[in-house]
From TrEMBL:
One CC-aspect GO term: efflux pump complex
Protein name (Swiss-Prot/TrEMBL): TolC family protein
Alphabetical list of SUPFAM superfamilies matching this protein: Outer membrane efflux proteins (OEP)
Positions in coiled-coil regions: none
Keyword tags: Cell outer membrane, Membrane, Signal, Transmembrane, Transmembrane beta strand, Transport
Superkingdom, natural source: Bacteria
Database matches in InterPro entries: OMP_efflux (IPR003423), TolC-like (IPR051906)
Species whose genome carries this gene: Mucilaginibacter celer
């Protein structure tokens, strides 16, 4: 009886989706979910965010790879007058007409452990003096150096801890976005399913009311029913006609909403099949919690947030006012009137320097920054602990809700069957004159409500089911982690 007013349809095949807009699309809940995951705007947004996070991670990885760059000035032509200070202190403006071109190939490699950089270079410079008609070359055949910040914050070291967490978090967030789509489209699915059921109920009630009215009119002519009963049935008929119109309007709106979310074009009719195979899976809070901590982006975010707070403390302490940088390089250089001579017997060059800056008076600014970072770290630890408790409570509550909804669905289905059978008996008794119009109306409304309650129970159950998948990123029917390509 519970399926009397729910349309039973065949499984949608792949070719059915390609039919013209005048055809009817027959969809199950699972098919609607897959359509939404493939075509909805939300799915495209999730894919775009995933790609963005992937390239951000690739950018981070490149910071630890050797860098090779070619730079130069080609040409460096100049024709002007420039001031030249004379030995007696006066200024003369002399004509300048030259080309000063250069080319350099530079190599660098960051050192994660220390935050320093090792680098190498080879350079060649050509100077053409057009006024004096001479050419001069200067070059560095090769040079190597090392730059090391001292007593400073090492961003490379901290990024290596945090960026992989952020990337893994983004991958799990994409899976969550897909499962969130299932939750959202499940709502649109049952909006339309309920609208279709309401339309079928309204049409059936109108047809039954018209049949009963015909029987009542015959009884009225025989004097077996009162005029009041005839008027009551006529009123029921008008209400049933109004209900059909309202149900059709609601179904059109629900169809449009479902089409819009799933990205389906056309104006063809969509007919939904109520889910019949109810999952019998047994889930425990312990299992769901274990999978949630292993899979959810929130669980990764707990570690990432603590690491970022510790990084901010290290950064504040590293920016304590004292800055120093050690730079050392060695190599060879030479000058000549032609390129080959630049590379003959080059002269060695060396450089070693330590640059430092020490604030004498900063009015406690460095200390304040460090204390602020420490306070923020403590706050983050408290916040993460609170979020962990909320995370756990949410999962425990959802598991309990899912198990309750599974039981409620069984009871509601039974109530729907009983209400349908009771209504059928009431109709027969009224025709036989063994039941009042008031009792018939009560049975009438109880049957309608039982059918709507059954659809509502289906909605609650499948909503809890998809919410459970979303919270754990685990498929408890197949006992596998949820993944997407």
């Amino acid at each position: 009886m519970k399926y009397l007013y729910i349309i039973l349809l065949s499984t949608l095949t792949t070719t059915a989706l390609a039919r013209s807009g005048s055809d009817t699309l027959r969809l199950t809940l699972q098919q609607v979910v897959e359509l939404a995951k493939a075509n909805s705007i939300a799915a495209k947004q999730a894919a775009t965010v995933r790609e963005t996070k992937y390239w951000e991670y690739r950018t981070y990885k490149s910071n630890y790879q050797p860098q090779l760059a070619l730079s130069g000035i080609l040409p460096g032509y100049t024709k002007t007058f420039t001031q030249v200070q004379q030995p007696d202190g006066t200024i003369l403006f002399q004509p300048v007409h030259n080309d000063n071109s250069s080319l350099a190939l530079n190599f660098s490699q960051s050192i994660t452990a220390t935050g320093g950089t090792i680098y190498g270079t080879t350079q060649l410079q050509r100077f053409d003096d057009f006024d004096r008609h001479n050419v001069l070359y200067n070059g560095i055949p090769y040079g190597i150096g090392y730059s090391q910040p001292l007593f400073q914050f090492n961003s490379l070291k901290w990024d290596k801890k945090i960026e992989p967490l952020k990337f893994n978090e983004s991958k799990q967030a994409y899976i969550e976005a897909q499962e969130k789509i299932a939750i959202d489209v499940e709502g649109y699915f049952f909006d339309l399913l309920l609208a279709q059921v309401n339309l079928k109920i309204a049409e059936t009630n109108l047809a039954n009311t018209e049949k009963i009215l015909k029987v009542a009119n015959l009884k009225y002519e025989l004097g077996k029913v009162s005029k009041n009963e005839i008027l009551q049935l006529q009123l029921e008929q008008i209400n049933a006609q109004k209900a059909v119109g309202t149900a059709r309007r609601d179904m059109e709106i629900a169809t449009l909403n479902l089409r819009s979310f799933t990205g389906q074009e056309g104006d063809g009719k969509i007919v939904l099949e109520a889910p019949k195979n109810i999952s019998r899976m047994i889930v425990s809070s312990e299992k769901v919690l274990a999978e949630a901590y292993a899979n959810r982006s929130d669980a990764i975010a707990f570690s990432r947030r603590l690491a970022e707070a510790a990084r901010d403390v290290a950064k504040a302490k590293g920016q304590n006012g004292l800055t120093a940088t050690l730079t050392a390089n060695l190599g060879f250089s030479n000058t000549a009137t032609n390129i080959p001579d630049v590379y003959k017997n080059p002269q060695n060059q060396q450089q070693l320097q330590v640059q430092l800056s020490i604030p004498i008076l900063d009015w406690g600014r460095s200390k304040s920054r460090a204390k602020t970072a420490l306070a923020n770290q403590q706050f983050t630890e408290y916040a993460v602990e609170q979020d962990k408790q909320t995370f756990k409570q949410q999962i425990v509550t959802q598991v309990s809700l899912f198990n309750v909804m599974k039981e409620q669905l069984v009871y509601t289905a039974r109530a729907d069957s009983i209400a349908g059978e009771k209504y059928q008996i009431a109709r027969e008794r009224y025709v036989l004159g063994d039941l009042s119009i008031t009792d018939l109306g009560i049975a009438f409304r109880e049957n309608d409500q039982a059918q709507r309650d059954y659809v509502a129970a289906l909605r609650d159950f499948w909503g809890a089911y998809y919410q459970l998948r979303y919270l754990s990123l685990y498929d408890f029917e197949t006992n596998k982690k949820i993944t997407y390509n």
